[in-house]
Amino acid sequence: MIETGIVKEVFENKAKISIQKHSACKKCGVCKYDAESKMLTAEAVNNIGAKEGDEVEIAMDFDVLMSASLIAYIIPIIMFIIGCVLGFYLISPANPILSFIVGLIFIAITYLIIRMFDKRGKFKKKYSMQITKIIKNS
Predict the structure, then answer these.
(1) What pTM did the predictor assign?
(2) Which helix (H) or strand (E) holds 101?
(3) Going along the chain, which residue ranges are E strands?
(4) Going from the N-terminus, what domains does the chain have, and what CATH number goes with each?
């Protein structure tokens, strides 16, 4: 994934970048979305010395993007299905509503575990964006 944006803030070897929202960006969670300005704010590694106001190109490898999608979407769906099946066969085959509730509990636990790992910084290095090129200096 390659995007262009404007550097808003530089700190250490990172930069906060403002990016125009695209349809492919629908709530993946990597960036923070400001509904008022319809802009995304992303944090990217700044190894090329971009400064505030520069227009830059940022990139995230496709395999990294796919594994982030797997963590955010596919694993919770799988856990929901496992919860529904376990709820149906182990708790009450006569009550499908109960198995649905067990599935919801499994998906909630999965998101709590993902959030716990995210807060501890387990995903920061692997799922970070990189500034690859300065398009226009400020």
Answers:
(1) 0.60
(2) helix 96-119
(3) 2-11, 14-20, 32-34, 39-45, 55-59, 129-136
(4) 2-60+127-136 (2.40.50), 64-119 (no CATH)
